[in-house]
């Protein structure tokens, strides 16, 4: 269990300077944590010849074990694994890239913010443009990864969230359902302005999804969004959002739209006074 294992990171790892000079990067992959022969054997798993003669999925096994190896070596020895990680991240087999995509948030915790920004963010960006089988890995842990980034770097991804609405297969509704779940968590990472400008349009789009399971999660998303904007210092956003809810759903000429309005109102019953205001506007 990687989550429990992360508690055993040594204090020396946490205090180590995570920036390496070019000269240090060129040093041979030598460390004193584990037997060097064992590490060399692990690093050789990315050799294409081994995949042909030993095991066709050996690169996938290497990718699966990489966070554990990084945790054992510590962030001060990340230079021993960096090249191997980049090789695996560009592997032709999507299963290898998918394995790394599902664990990149764990590796970010081990490496710290500086190494994450320099070495993991470019890989993360590549996964965002990959096949759906790989993108789902970063999507399922989107909040876990973005919360480790500095605010400025985190805001850059606001422009890309809309891209998760587009999938290789339009019938892949679980992809959109996972997006709605992640957006609920992301509300705590962004300001009221960012929520209104970037997350609100995605939430309304998900509320009109063809699949009911996606819509139900989206109702909760919109309700939490109202809550977040209501407690924010700027009340303009919540008023505008309430007005939009009335126009898009409460006054919708289709019964399904009006039903959506009712469902959103009943999700958060302890916020019923807010939605009473909505009903007052609608009347």
Structure in words:
The chain has 18 helices and no strands. By secondary structure, it is an all-alpha fold. The protein has two domains: 27-149, Leucine-rich Repeat Variant; 176-282. Helix 15 (212-231) crosses helix 17 (255-267) and helix 16 (236-250) packs antiparallel against helix 17. Residues 1-18 have low confidence and may be disordered.
Protein traits:
single chain; 283 residues; mainly alpha; Leucine-rich Repeat Variant; 2 domains; 18 helices; 68% helix; elongated; disordered N terminus
User: Per CATH, what is the topology of the largest domain?
Assistant: Leucine-rich Repeat Variant
**Low-confidence blocks of residues:** 1-18
- Which structural category do the helix and sheet elements fall into? mainly alpha
Number of strands: 0
Protein name: PP4R1 phosphatase
GO molecular function, one term: protein phosphatase regulator activity
Organism: Nothoprocta pentlandii
InterPro entries: ARM-like, ARM-type_fold, PP2A_Regulatory_Subunit_A
């Amino acid at each position: 269990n990687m989550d429990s294992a992360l508690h055993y990171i040594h204090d020396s790892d946490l205090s180590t300077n995570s920036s390496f000079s070019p000269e240090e990067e060129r040093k041979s992959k030598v460390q004193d944590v584990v037997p060097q022969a064992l590490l060399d054997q692990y690093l050789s798993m990315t050799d294409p010849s081994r995949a042909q003669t030993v095991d066709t999925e050996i690169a996938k096994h290497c990718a699966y074990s990489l966070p554990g190896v990084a945790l054992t070596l510590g962030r001060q020895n990340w230079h021993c694994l960096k090249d191997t990680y980049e090789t695996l991240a560009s592997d032709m087999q999507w299963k290898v890239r998918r394995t790394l995509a599902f664990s990149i948030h764990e590796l970010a915790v081990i490496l710290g913010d500086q190494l994450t920004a320099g070495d993991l963010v470019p890989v993360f960006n590549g996964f965002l443009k990959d096949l759906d089988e790989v993108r789902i890995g970063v999507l399922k842990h989107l909040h876990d990864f973005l919360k480790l980034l500095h605010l400025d770097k985190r805001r850059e991804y606001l422009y890309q969230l809309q891209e998760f609405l587009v999938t290789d297969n339009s019938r892949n509704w679980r992809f959109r359902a996972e997006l709605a779940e992640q957006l609920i968590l992301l509300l705590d990472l962004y300001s009221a302005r960012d929520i209104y400008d970037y997350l609100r349009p995605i939430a309304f789009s998900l509320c009109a999804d063809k699949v009911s399971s996606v819509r139900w999660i989206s109702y909760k998303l919109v309700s939490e969004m109202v809550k977040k904007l209501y407690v924010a210092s700027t009340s303009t956003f919540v008023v505008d959002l309430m007005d939009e809810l009335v126009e898009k759903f409460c006054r919708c000429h289709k019964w399904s739209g009006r039903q959506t309005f009712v469902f959103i109102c009943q999700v958060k019953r302890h916020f019923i006074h807010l939605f009473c205001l909505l009903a007052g506007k609608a009347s």
